[in-house]
Design goal:
The chain is α/β, with parallel strands linked by helices. The protein has a domain at 10-105 and 166-234: 3-Layer(aba) Sandwich (Rossmann fold). It has 6 helices and 10 strands, in the order βββαββαβαααβαβββ. It has helices at 54-61, 84-94, 110-120, 125-138, 154-166, 184-198; strands at residues 10-21, 28-39, 43-47, 69-74, 77-78, 95-99, 172-176, 204-208, 220-225, 228-234. A 6-stranded mixed sheet has the order 6-7-8-3-9-10, with helices on both faces. Strand 7 (172-176), helix 6 and strand 8 form a beta-alpha-beta unit. Helix 3 packs across helix 4 (125-138) and helix 3 (110-120) runs parallel beside helix 5. The longest helix has 15 residues, at 184-198. The radius of gyration is 18 Å and the shape is globular. Bound molecules: adenosine-5'-diphosphate and magnesium ion. Adenosine-5'-diphosphate binds next to strand 2 and helix 1.
């Protein structure tokens, strides 16, 4: 299937994006002229060996990192031309992040952790708690609202991190190796949630992984090697995980 999308279908468009780190002998070309469109309503897996540029690619796509060359368009806005302050606001409003490390605040309980993006956005504590509780129910943690991170398993902590990433209804969810620290069963629970709770028609979901145990959750698989995007494939319904 063709990977070309029309402007309205693409949530993220990278055009000729290059990213170099360092200079001279220590120069690394983390991304080498990458052109890629990522759609709404699909779970895109970005796969490839360690060091091939996956984290760099999603960091640029999410406006956390500026490219050395090329253009980045997210939700129809050109990030390359956006000021730093506007970019921070744009990220806070439209993008959710999940990392390998759950990065929960140890002194806050689970539902308070899930509230954080709303508190940053200026919501009252009462409204934020109400919204976060809703999302915590969706990720199956309605019975662990008041638990502290150290009272939760890795899989449960990652589910809190997913709730936190979704609490402000982002248009884009970016996950960097979300199952890398989890056992197989918890990894599949986490990917199942990303697919069933996070994925919506009007949301783009990108998951970086080299965990082949969860490849069947992807709708589209983008393979990277040496800073370049290679094969892009879509899984057939038979190959794809379907929620029952
Ligand atoms: N901040 C940085 N400074 C210097 N080199 C970096 C930095 N971030 C990434 N790199 C290099 O860029 C390449 C791609 O890294 P990365 O995007 O993290 O790969 P992946 O996520 O696929 O493992 C690697 O060679 C890495 O060492
Ligand atoms: Mg990485």
């Amino acid at each position: 299937m063709s990977a070309t999308l029309t402007a309205t279908e693409a949530a993220i468009r990278l055009k000729g994006v290059t990213k170099a780190f360092g200079t001279g002998d220590s120069k690394t070309l983390a991304l080498d002229n990458v052109t890629l469109d990522l759609p709404y309503g699909e779970l895109v897996l970005l796969v490839g060996p360690s060091g091939c540029g996956k984290t760099t690619l999603i960091s640029i796509a999410a406006g956390l990192l500026d490219p050395t060359a090329g253009e980045v368009e997210v939700l129809g806005k050109n990030l390359t031309r956006m000021s730093g302050t506007r970019k921070v606001k744009f990220r806070g409003q439209y993008i959710g992040f999940v990392f390998q490390q759950y990065n929960l605040l140890p002194a806050m309980n689970a539902v308070e952790n899930a509230c954080v993006p709303l508190l940053i956005a200026g919501w009252s504590r009462a409204r934020a708690l109400e919204k976060a509780t809703e999302v915590m129910l969706k990720v199956g943690l309605g019975n662990r609202l008041k638990s502290f991170p150290n009272q939760l398993s890795g899989g449960q902590q990652q589910r809190v991190a997913i709730a936190r990433a979704l609490v402000h209804d982002p248009k884009i969810l970016v996950c960097d190796e979300p199952t890398a620290a989890l056992d197989a069963a918890s990894g599949r629970t986490v990917m199942g949630l990303i697919k069933e709770v996070a994925l919506q028609e009007d949301r783009a979901v990108i998951v970086v992984t080299h965990d082949s145990r969860v490849y069947d959750f992807g709708d589209r698989i983008v393979e990277m090697a040496d800073g370049k995007v290679g094969k892009i494939s879509t899984l057939t319904p038979g190959e794809r995980f379907e929620h029952t």
